[in-house]
Design brief:
By secondary structure, this protein is an alpha/beta fold. It is built from seven helices and 14 strands. 49% of the residues are buried.
């Protein structure tokens, strides 16, 4: 099921996580759920008036099983370049493994047993790079390659797991699910300082904010 948050922006509520579709210069899938969310993503796309084959770009906020899980299942219908931060893109391409010595990295290694590497072009995205109307912001901490994407034109921010939503407010990614919580806090402050104003805040966990998203991020940055 797809819920339209703003004109051309839909949320797909999956198994404990959200993915999004943005009708930008091309239909853009944002994150891709768990390996068990294929049907829900297909149904969400259909609710929004699209097929898998219509998707022209995939923006990943980061590598985690619940954010990349359906990519392989959606191919070969999905013929789109996947963009992710450098460290995380290398994991998805199979060029490196998450580090055992970090608690989150060790968990990613175990979770990776349930993931299949997609046969798709996977590009590393740079801080400040523009993809459609979105600008990429490197926001490490939850993972080393975590990226947030902000579109000033659409007034939408794709925040992934840098933050979560609770009772209408944004909260930092917690230690148990993050590589480095100090870097999470630094990334929140940096994004609040650098990103343009936006209304819609799309988060991986909790409910997205359909309005006041930028204000909520600023409030969090001031509080931490």
């Amino acid at each position: 099921m797809a819920t339209e948050l703003a004109d051309g922006v839909w949320r797909f509520e999956l198994r404990g996580v959200s993915a999004y579709l943005v009708d930008d210069d091309v239909p853009t899938l944002v994150d891709a759920g768990t390996p068990w969310d294929e049907e829900a993503i297909r149904e969400g796309l259909a609710d929004a008036g699209f097929d898998v084959s219509d998707v022209g770009r995939v923006l990943l906020t980061h590598y985690d099983l619940d954010h990349v899980g359906t990519l392989d299942a959606l191919t070969p219908e999905l013929d789109a370049t996947v963009y992710a931060g450098g460290f995380d893109a290398a994991i998805l391409r199979g060029e490196r493994s998450p580090p055992w010595r970090n608690h989150k990295g060790a968990f990613q290694r175990l979770a990776g047993l349930f993931a299949t590497r997609p046969d798709l072009e996977i590009e590393s995205v740079r801080d400040g790079e523009c993809l459609g109307s979105f600008t990429a912001y490197h926001t490490p901490g939850h993972t080393p390659g975590h990226v947030a994407y902000v579109s000033e034109e659409l007034s939408v921010a794709l925040l992934g797991d840098l933050v979560s939503e609770s009772d209408g407010a944004l909260e930092p990614s917690e230690w148990v699910i993050s590589y480095d919580t100090d870097r999470v806090l630094d990334s929140i402050r940096d994004l609040a300082d650098r990103a343009p104003a936006f209304e819609v805040a799309c988060v991986g966990h909790g409910d997205p904010l359909a309005s006041g998203g930028g204000d909520a991020l600023d409030a969090l940055a001031d509080r931490i």
